[in-house]
Design goal:
2 helices; single chain; mainly alpha; 25% helix
Length: 80
């Protein structure tokens, strides 16, 4: 019983140690330089956002339903 209590206390402590705060650069480091033409540097959330080319969304469904395959004239049995 005491092991279960100790395990649950350790699990609760592990869950509580997660830090929820704004992202900041590490000590002694700085954010990347301001992009050319930008008036202010991007925020941490803007730097973490994926560009559309990195994770494109599909605009059409390629196969809406299953379809019968047409006969393939090159699908021949092996010779032997």
């Amino acid at each position: 019983m005491s092991r279960a209590v100790a395990a649950s206390l350790m699990l609760a402590a592990l869950c509580a140690c997660g830090k929820v705060d704004d992202l900041k650069p590490a000590a002694g480091a700085s954010l990347p330089p301001v992009p050319y033409g930008a008036s202010e540097p991007p925020t941490a959330q803007e730097l973490l956002a994926l560009p559309p080319l990195a994770a494109p969304e599909r605009s059409v469904e390629l196969r809406a339903e299953s379809e019968e395959r047409e006969d393939d004239p090159f699908d021949l049995p092996p010779e032997g």
